[in-house]
Design a protein that fits this description.
Number of helices: 1
Number of strands: 8
Length: about 200
């Protein structure tokens, strides 16, 4: 996996350097990226029940000037179950909006995003029967839905007009109408992206 990620980084950086023209600055509207998802432990069913694996993102620039860029986009994160309570892997869908600031007048640009994320998972349980030979003693499945607002500050380093490296943090207080309480989850993202 490390060799593939390194190979992809080298390929994209060579492609961006080969296509970059120093005389004309090309305005890009779309950004796509791939990132590692770190799920920090926080003693709740989501933080302790899943390993962060990988995610993808897509953004479109709604407004741009010399100082700020406003984006609308979608992040999809894949988390792998640890088989504690929720038995299936999950995809977290996160439509969002973000503002990128050129405060340093260079390649490093901070951003702040907010959005709404949701996912679902199946929970399996046994019916209450004391006799295992009873036909009513079966495994039942119910679907649990989760959602919540997201807050996502971070930094982008624009290697070129076509390539950027990104690091960010996401706070996701997960609610569910199926389970009482709230699961405060914290994700760390490290990745790279391509602009076109």
């Amino acid at each position: 996996m490390k060799k593939i990620a390194f190979g992809l980084l080298v390929f994209l950086s060579n492609l961006s350097i080969a296509q970059e023209n120093s005389d004309v600055k090309k305005e890009t509207k779309f950004q796509v990226g791939v990132h590692y998802v770190g799920n920090l432990r926080n003693e709740n069913i989501i933080s302790d029940g899943f390993n962060g694996v990988v995610g993808i993102s897509g953004n479109y620039a709604l407004y741009q000037d010399e100082m700020i860029s406003v984006f609308g986009g979608l992040n999809i994160d894949y988390l792998q179950t640890r088989d504690y309570f929720l038995q299936n892997d999950i995809l977290i869908w996160n439509p969002n909006a973000s503002i990128e600031f050129d405060v340093f007048k260079g390649k490093l640009k901070p951003f702040f995003g907010f959005g709404y994320a949701f996912f679902s998972n199946e929970f399996k349980f046994e019916t209450s029967s004391f006799d295992p030979s009873d036909p009513s003693f079966i495994t039942r499945t119910t679907k649990l839905n989760f959602n919540g607002l997201t807050i996502n500050p971070g930094l982008k380093y624009h290697v070129s007009d076509l390539l950027f490296i990104e690091g960010s943090y996401k706070y996701f207080p997960i609610n569910s109408s199926d389970i009482d309480g709230k699961a405060n989850t914290h994700f760390i993202y490290l990745g790279l992206g391509f602009k076109f």
